[in-house]
Amino acid sequence: MIGGVATVSDRQGYEPPPMDGQLVSLPTPTVPIDGMWFRSATQPPRATAMLCHGNGANFYSGPVRFLSSHLVPRGIECFSFNRRGHETLTSRTRVPEGNAYQTAAEAIEDNEIARAHVVQRAGGEPVVIGHSNGGLFAARHVADHPGVRALVLLSAHLGGPEMLRRGSEIGLMAQGRRTEISAEAHRLVESGEPEALLLMPGWWYVVSAATYLDMESDNIPRIVEAAPRIECPVLYLRGELEDPEMYPAENFAAAAHAPVDVRIVSGADHFYSGCEDEVGRMVGDWLDTILGEPGAGLSGLPHDVKRAGPPRTPPGSAPGARSR
Length: 324
Hints:
This protein is of the alpha/beta class. The protein has ten helices and twelve strands. It folds into two domains: 2-159 and 221-322, Alpha/Beta hydrolase fold, catalytic domain (Rossmann fold, 3-Layer(aba) Sandwich), CATH 3.40.50.1820; 165-218, no CATH class. α1 crosses α9, α2 (104-122) crosses α3 (133-144) and α5 crosses α6 (209-216). It starts with a strand and ends with a strand.
């Protein structure tokens, strides 16, 4: 690991206190998971958060970039890491890799590897935070690990093959060419070319044949199906400009047994552009209610206390309430 002092500011000019940053590389069966461990240079941590990025992103872009600058000063150290499916198309050598080649099974395994590192290093269960596709797989991960302290979902999508359908309907992915691209993906896989690349008219634009078929399948978890198995408190944010079917916060809350706080961020897009400081404070304030205020120590509130009682709806945060 390489140590150093890191500063991460958002577009609104918020400047956090200096943080210690350490580069981390974790082995996998294929390419390593790389990430950054952020912690305060001046105070001991009271919790650790795993930050899981979305499709086509990485540990230093989007919400997982700006959140660490809001959480570390509150005593929540952060491990922000790349899944093997990071960027859209990338390479460490001349062998292509990245989001265009990702599979659901690989994403699930990456979270398990990251969690094992966090538990070993921090000595306890983490908070888990995920954006978009990272949120979907964060929810699946937390459903599999009931000891997780809290879950934050930032525009987590619905998952399942329905994600490809709905994403295409709203102008992403295959748009109106799903049948055509599916047929070509099947042809390539059946002819022994699963890694052949296909162009899609919408984001994320480039995908391998095998990954397209993985998205069409039931390999992709469904977020609403994960909801009843999650035992810790959940904060689920969605931007006001986003599609409620694609990012089903209310349906998730209705299916959950644990407390779920749904908040719609006024004026926000999928990446919370221009709302970074607001979202950072919102997430930090919510975690303070779950973990205890800064200074409560490493353990915060006991896990059974956090899960006790009916879903909490603090003033101004009722399901569907605007944050402004």
